[in-house]
Task: inverse folding
């Protein structure tokens, strides 16, 4: 995937993954990604990898993120102010001052999520509830620890949606709503329950 910001700065990611169907109507999967983001004053790169296990009514997923190179980037040091008396230093008149330094930091981190099929809803809607947590850290910033919960479902064979809630002390509480549309395939939503094998082809 490649993207460009409104200012013309590029970014993108390249990934590879595989899933293996298991006896007992379940599958396992692994994936790896390399991400590049040049939309900041200086660019960032990172590796990400993940693993998952999904069966008919339960799932567990794990992702980890590892920045590459120097993950601390100065943004600006233009916020300066001066206090105190003037004094001489060699051939210069000097006044004591201070500078505020802003920086962007790429964080090491990971997240884990557990999922359950929502009982009482027909399987053809593929309705799931998920809950988990995340942690991001670097010596330059305060550790970010939080919790996440989301509900996802397929409204039709090609339209799906989810609502997600994230909460931590750094970014407080955030609610995200998303709707996705996939080009219709050959599967009839109302014909049979949604099997695990079909979920192998979902992102």
Result:
């Amino acid at each position: 995937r490649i993207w460009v910001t409104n200012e013309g700065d590029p970014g993108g990611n390249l990934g590879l993954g595989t899933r293996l169907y298991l006896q007992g109507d379940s599958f396992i999967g692994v994936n790896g990604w390399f991400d590049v983001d040049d939309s900041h004053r200086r660019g960032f790169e990172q590796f990400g990898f993940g693993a998952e296990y999904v069966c008919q009514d339960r799932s567990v997923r794990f992702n980890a993120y590892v920045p590459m190179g120097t993950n601390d980037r100065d943004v600006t040091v233009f916020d300066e102010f001066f206090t105190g008396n003037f004094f001489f230093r060699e051939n210069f008149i000097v006044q004591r001052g201070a500078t505020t330094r802003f920086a962007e930091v790429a964080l090491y981190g990971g997240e884990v999520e557990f999922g359950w099929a929502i009982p009482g809803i027909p399987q053809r809607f593929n309705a799931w509830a998920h809950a988990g947590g995340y942690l991001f850290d670097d010596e330059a910033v305060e550790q970010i620890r939080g919790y996440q919960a989301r509900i996802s479902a397929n409204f039709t064979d090609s339209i799906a949606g989810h609502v997600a809630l994230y909460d931590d002390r750094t970014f407080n509480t955030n609610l995200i709503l998303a709707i996705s549309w996939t080009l219709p395939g050959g599967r009839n939503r109302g014909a049979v329950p949604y099997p695990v094998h079909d979920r192998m082809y979902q992102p």
Notes: The chain has a mean pLDDT of 82.
